[in-house]
Write a structure and sequence with these properties.
binds iron/sulfur cluster; alpha+beta; five-stranded mixed sheet; Lambda Exonuclease, Chain A; about 10% strand
Length: about 425
């Protein structure tokens, strides 16, 4: 995948559509890669390899000692199988689709200088014989569920695809799929070409504002990847105001000026303190109320994390002094500096059993035997244990667990309580 990103990138479109000045505000902050991003890039390369191989193109299998795992093989299989099934379905309908892998699309007619790389464009016809553009996007994330429904990233890619290839098969329908195997999420959104183009027209003024760095700052869940977040005043004001509004009763005047406490007179008769901040509901907060503030807490904790990360990086990476803080070394574990020498010395001194033997992985077995033989010989010994239970928002596509029949699992925090 190319490294270049447009200022108004499709992947950050949710951010700039909600907070137009953010793209310019974050310009001075480095776009640092993370290990997750690097793993994602590798996984995309594997996806590309698998689809190109299916298309009988000459390709080299991507290699990575760091990121290649059995699990990467599995999730990229899910993507490749999904994409191939779309192509095969069109072929069964007598259509020879145009298949474009890792295709650069240009949507600069909507957002100034806008372009991006779509994982997959398939242009053909749907089962009813209507011209169809199907866009597929692979996601490796497992933290946040990504919905295809009115997903602005996909819609921008689609607009770019239409601009370049809209004449082929006279496209009438646009279908956009997100394949996020780590969350068992394959989500598809479909709309007519007219709807998509109307949406494109509707966002043109916002895109122009964003490109010019104008408009209102507007904090929300799209702040998640904004590089200006740790120093964004709007974000800080909002997070602190949310804390105050959710937990404290402002009617008591807790944050009004002139609240200085007088020196206490121990002989004075007791008087109720009406100036100190109090919880809206004295005593304990019911679960229903806690549930109502969960989305807010997510936003606040994400903001707090970003502030800590930013200030820590300034102090540790750039030696910027942080008043009241210092940089120290954390705990570390002992390691062998020369494993070969360790083995030599241990053997010379009569020690044995220095190595552990391990069963090869399920995927390695499958590769060694082939899928069919593997299923015949070992299929009955393969099981997929249930995943760890998690509390997620209602719009997550996974079906709810029947807790009556689910295996015993307690949320981890409970285990840390006093024994
Ligand atoms: S952190 Fe949020 S509110 Fe602040 S500039 Fe970024 S997107 Fe806008």
């Amino acid at each position: 995948m190319p490294d270049v990103h447009a200022l108004l990138s499709a992947s950050s479109s949710k951010q700039w559509l909600h907070c137009p000045p953010s793209v310019r505000l974050q310009e001075g902050f480095p776009n640092e890669s993370s290990v997750y991003a690097e793993e994602g890039t590798f996984a995309h390369e594997v996806c590309e390899y698998k689809v190109r191989k299916y298309l009988h193109e000459r390709v080299k299998r991507p290699q990575s000692e760091e990121f290649y795992t059995e699990e990467i093989d599995q999730i990229t299989d899910v993507y490749a199988e999904f994409v191939i099934s779309i192509i095969e379905q069109m072929k069964r309908n007598g259509i020879e689709p145009l298949v474009l892998v890792e295709e650069r699309v240009d949507y600069s007619h909507i957002a100034p200088s806008g372009f991006g790389t779509a994982d997959m464009l398939i242009i053909g016809k749907d089962d009813d014989g209507k011209g169809l553009l199907h866009i597929c996007d692979f996601k490796t994330g497992q933290g946040v569920f990504v919905d295809a429904d009115h997903n602005s990233q996909m819609m921008l890619y689609a607009l770019g695809g239409l601009a370049a290839y809209g004449y082929i098969y006279e496209i009438e329908i646009v279908r956009m799929s997100i394949i996020q195997p780590r969350l068992d999420n394959i989500s598809t959104f479909e709309c007519s070409r007219e709807e998509l183009e109307a949406w494109g027209e509707s966002i043109k003024p916002i895109a122009k504002l964003a490109f010019e760095g104008k408009g209102e700052q507007h904090p929300g869940e799209w702040c998640r990847f904004c590089r200006a977040k740790p120093v964004c005043r709007a974000c800080a004001d909002e997070a602190l105001a949310l804390c105050r509004e959710e937990f404290l009763d402002l009617d008591t005047g807790a944050f009004s000026e002139g609240n200085e406490t007088e020196e206490s007179d121990l002989t004075a008769p007791y008087q109720a303190d009406i100036d100190t901040p109090v919880f809206k509901q004295p005593g304990l907060i019911p679960l229903t109320e806690l549930a109502a503030i969960l989305p807010t807490l997510n936003r606040i904790s994400s903001w707090i994390e970003s502030v800590f990360a930013y200030v820590s990086a300034e102090a540790i990476n750039h030696a910027v002094p942080v008043p009241g803080y210092k940089v120290v070394e954390g705990r570390s574990k002992r390691i062998f500096t020369d494993p070969k020498a360790v083995v030599d010395v241990a053997v010379q001194n009569g020690y044995t059993d220095l190595y552990k033997q391990q069963l090869i992985s399920l995927t390695e077995f499958e590769k060694m035997m082939g899928k069919k033989r593997f299923a015949e010989l070992l299929g009955e010994y393969v099981a997929k244990p249930p995943g760890k239970l998690a509390l997620v928002p209602e719009n997550d596509p996974r079906p709810p667990v029947d807790l009556g029949s689910a295996p015993d699992q307690e949320f981890a925090v409970l285990a840390e309580q006093e024994e």
